[in-house]
TrEMBL record:
Location in the cell: Membrane
One Gene Ontology cellular component annotation held by this UniProt entry: plasma membrane
UniProt keyword Transmembrane helix, yes or no: yes
UniProt name for this protein: G-protein coupled receptors family 1 profile domain-containing protein
Lineage, broadest ranks: Eukaryota, Metazoa, Placozoa, Uniplacotomia, Trichoplacea
CDD domains: 7tm_classA_rhodopsin-like
GO BP term, pick one: G protein-coupled receptor signaling pathway
Membrane topology term: Multi-pass membrane protein
Entry keywords, A to Z: G-protein coupled receptor, Membrane, Receptor, Transducer, Transmembrane, Transmembrane helix
Length: 358
């Protein structure tokens, strides 16, 4: 890596605003994901593969916001106090300060992709999923992919084995922003990060949930086919009552079918929208800065880094809103709290189970 430094020209106002945002992200993200983690581990050994991966996602969310708060808050606080530079040079401690949050960020993206794969297998390939869930090594492989592969991207930067971080000289901190002038090593590393951390996981998530949506639509078509078959002429004794019951059941199936499709479509939209809004703007400004960097672009890059925390805040909220069981659990813990009102929802797994019974 060529030893190139840049400046950010950070004002006190920018530092104060960033500290406020970080405190909010830390408080909401940590509390929300701590709720999910506690809810999942309360079952202990009864946790299934999907439960473990949901816990994994919540834990990585909490780790990402916590490590980012610890690493970045001190930078903005020192800027506000005008105690600069924070680090006098590109030291190991300076690099670890940003590489650790970077590591948990990559783990978080991988967690979402692995959870999408498992949901796809559970609904579209139930036999394959059942076979994998019975083999303990499959979960070990999932966890190794989730936690070790990101380490190959994050920590070699800290120890200057591969890639690297950029030293922002006027403030005195290390940051994961890159420019082609830093050499071939950085060009290869940056390309690997964009493809491996953004493009591939986003493609996997989209394809998995799209396949799930298609499976639900196919099941709806089967229901509609059975519902539209010619009515059978029933014996005169009970034909009227049975006819009414059949018609009522038919209307109920139609209503459930519509609600089911809307539910899956909404869930798909929320997941993809959250991930896209979280990481795509950050990736775009990172690519722009790679070719043309300036203090303004570094500040924008830092602001959009905060946007990536949107998913860490949204994931537990989505899970709580769309899961009756966790709201029942929270209602028992906090009986006087009106935030955890119960209403009827149907999970994707429940949808798949009911579809197979038709």
């Amino acid at each position: 890596m060529v030893n190139v430094t840049f400046q950010i020209q950070m004002s006190e106002e920018f530092a104060v605003g960033s500290m406020i945002i970080l405190v909010f992200i830390f408080a909401v993200g940590l509390c929300g994901n701590a709720i999910i983690c506690c809810y999942k581990i309360k079952d202990g050994r009864k946790m299934k593969v999907q439960d473990i991966l949901v816990f994994n996602l919540a834990f990585s969310d909490a780790s990402y916001v916590t490590s980012s708060f610890i690493g970045l808050f001190q930078i903005f606080f020192r800027v506000y106090l005008n105690q600069l530079p924070i680090y006098k040079s590109n030291t190991l401690l300076c690099r670890l300060n940003i590489c650790i949050p970077f590591y948990f960020g990559v783990v978080n993206v991988f967690s979402m992709a692995l959870l999408a794969i498992v949901r796809y297998l559970a609904i579209n390939k139930p036999r394959t999923f059942l076979s994998l869930s019975r083999k303990s090594y499959s979960l070990v492989i999932f966890c190794l992919i989730n936690w070790l592969v990101p380490a190959l991207l994050a920590f070699p930067q800290a120890f200057r084995l591969w890639g690297g971080v950029t030293y922002i000289s006027d403030v005195g901190f290390c940051y994961t922003i890159y420019h082609y002038s830093q050499g071939l090593n950085i060009i290869i590393f940056f390309t690997t990060v964009i493809v491996g951390v953004i493009v591939v996981p986003l493609t996997i998530i989209f394809l998995c949930y799209w396949k799930i949506y298609q499976e639900v639509r196919r099941n709806r078509s089967r229901i509609a086919y059975h519902d539209n078959r010619p009515n059978v002429i029933l014996p005169a004794t009970h034909d009227k009552n049975r006819s009414l019951r059949v018609r009522a059941r038919s209307n109920s199936i139609k209503s459930f079918s519509r609600k089911r499709e809307i539910y899956v479509a909404t869930t798909l939209f929320i997941i993809l929208l959250t991930f896209t809004l979280s990481y795509i703007p950050y990736s775009i400004i990172a690519i722009i800065a790679f070719f043309r960097i300036s203090p303004y672009q570094i500040r924008v890059h830092l602001i959009l880094l905060f946007v990536t925390y949107l998913g860490n805040i949204a994931n537990p909220i989505i899970f709580i809103i769309r899961n009756n069981d966790i709201r029942k659990w929270l209602k028992r813990l906090f009986p006087s709290c009106s935030l955890f009102q119960l209403y009827s929802t149907t999970s994707i797994a429940d949808i798949a189970t009911q579809d197979r019974r038709v």
